[in-house]
Specification:
Strand content: under 5%
Structural class: mainly alpha
Largest sheet: none
Number of strands: 0
Radius of gyration: 67 Å
Length: about 160
């Protein structure tokens, strides 16, 4: 046996065999499950990332849609405000016309009542003038009769005194 440096090839092969068994066992027991776990974890995080990207894209699309709706709503609000202002103007014009018509009717009624009152006052004034004229004429007649009677009495009294 002339093995240099006392190397036993059988022992070396057994150690190599043990190392291969150990490496194979560790590979199947540790490396493979860890590799599968890491692949699942990587797949899970990639899925989460893709879901997040999808949700982000969806949220972005929804945000754009909401902004478009908001712009549309603002346009609708402006249109409705313009329409409401037009209706308010029409309603105001109708109310103003109704108020003017009512004012014209009130003025016409007031003029009619004033004319009636004027006619009543004039007819009353005519009656009063007639009554005053009659009264004045009666007083004048009565006054001139009183004056004439007074003169007659004065003359009669003088005559009576002259006769005495």
């Amino acid at each position: 046996m002339g093995i240099p440096l006392n190397i036993d090839w059988q022992q070396i092969l057994l150690h190599v065999f043990n190392f291969v068994i150990l490496a194979g066992g560790l590979y199947f027991l540790l490396y493979s499950p860890v590799k599968k776990f890491m692949a699942k974890r990587d797949e899970h995080y990639r899925k989460m990332d893709s879901d997040a990207n999808e949700k982000l894209a969806s949220a972005s699309a929804l945000e754009k849609e909401a902004q478009a709706r908001l712009d549309n709503v603002e346009d609708e609000i402006k249109a409705k405000r313009v329409k409401a202002e037009e209706e308010l103007d029409k309603y105001s014009a109708l109310q103003m016309q109704a108020a003017n018509d009512k004012a014209d009717k009130i003025i016409a009624d007031a003029k009619k009542a004033a004319d009636e009152e004027r006619q009543t006052i004039l007819s009353g004034a005519d009656r009063d003038i007639i009554d005053m004229t009659k009264s004045l004429a009666a007083k004048m007649v009565h006054a001139s009769t009183d004056a004439a009677f007074g003169q007659f009495l004065d003359i009669a009294e003088r005559d009576a005194q002259n006769d005495k």
